[in-house]
Amino acid sequence: MTAETSQTLDRGLRVLKLLADTDHGLTVTELSNKLGVNRTVVYRLLATLEQHALVRRDLGGRARVGLGVLRLGRQVHPLVREAALPALRSLAEDIGATAHLTLVDGTEALAVAVVEPTWTDYHVAYRAGFRHPLDRGAAGRAILAARAAAADEPGYTLTHGELEAGASGAAAPLIGVTGVEGSVGVVMLADAVPERVGPRVVDAAREVADALR
User: Fold this and answer.
1) Are residues 144 and 155 in contact, defined by beta-carbon separation less than 8 angstroms?
2) Burial, 152: exposed, middle or buried (Cβ in 10 Å; 0-12, 13-18, 19+)?
3) Where does the HTH iclR-type domain lie (predicted)?
4) Which candidate in 26, 68, 120, 189 could, as Cys together with 30 as Cys, close a disulfide (CB 3.0–4.6 Å)?
């Protein structure tokens, strides 16, 4: 801790992070042990977070992340979209295909930013807000590949005809961005993705990740 930071706020944020990392909640004693502070401090932290609906406690006394976090989370997509747009524009113009940023939303892939090329005669219409299962389409498959990969660079994923007949896709996951799970990709009307597209998508995903760090 430095002189410019708040110890109480730091502890409150640590409580939220600990609760976000568990599905079954934590007791006051468990939080006290993990934070290295006494139970009285934890009670005060939880009471304050409860007032803002960021934490809730069940009948058994276990603390869990509250619904107030969702209201904060709704502001994440616009910020992520804004940060990603320069890299997506460059990708779309370079490849001549529709570029997109896709994030995980529950069990689905959600396109949160889409950029279409300006110079092509035709391209795939792909809209922000489009959802599809994670196990269909390059965007979702790239995210699943990143989950399964042991390396820091899972590479890129290619698909054809999984979401739209005659369309091919390429996508690469965002790597090293805390709290954001997603991918950057392109979709094009082609029987196969040209060889240079995969590495170019990986570069774009790296640019977006750097912008979000």
Assistant:
1) no
2) exposed
3) 6-67
4) 26
**What are the backbone angles phi and psi of residue 159, rounded to the nearest 5°?**
-140, 165
Give me the phi and psi of 111, to 5 degrees please: -75, 120
CB 123 within 8 A of CB 149: no
Q: Is 4 exposed, middle or buried (0-12, 13-18, 19+ CB in 10 A)?
A: exposed
Q: Round to whole Å and give the CA distance between 97 and 93.
A: 7
Number of residues that make up the chain: 213
Contacts of 37 (CB under 8 A, 6+ apart): 11
**β-bridge mates for residue 105, sequence order:** 108
Identity of residue 141:
R
In the chain, DSSP finds a helix count (H) and a strand count (E) of 7, 8
Using one digit for the tens of pLDDT, what is the confidence trace for 78-125? 888 899 999 999 999 999 999 999 998 878 999 999 999 999 998 988
User: Residue 141: which pLDDT band, with cuts at 50, 70 and 90?
Assistant: very high
For every residue of 105-127, DSSP letters joined together read ETTEEEEEEEE--SS-S------
